[in-house]
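Reading a protein record of the kind used here takes only a little practice. These numbers are not coordinates but entries in a learned vocabulary of local backbone shapes. Here is one such record, which you should read through line by line.
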Amino acid sequence: MEDHVHCFIGLKPVVSVSELMKTVKGKSSKYINDHKLTPGRFEWQEGYGVFSYSQKNVDTVYKYIQHQEEHHKVQTFREEYLELLKEFRVEFDEQYIFQDLI
């Protein structure tokens, strides 16, 4: 999708989410910019969202990611993200929610 990425990762407990995201964002930005895959300089927005799922939900999440293009024809990234925050009972301040692309 042009405004977000879903990464479905199995993570060992010795790896912190913040270190993983720092690496993912840093290496992907470098790759995109080195290969000039965008008209201008590519940068990620600040922050990220992380949600944990049990082993029994792996197939459901995997299928969702495979078909997210169809899903996002009826629900925006922002709507989806706010729904996930509510579903996972994450308290949040609206000022820190990702901004829509212009």
Observations:
- The chain has one domain: 17-96.
- The mean pLDDT is 89.
- Residues 11 and 41 are 30 Å apart (CA to CA).
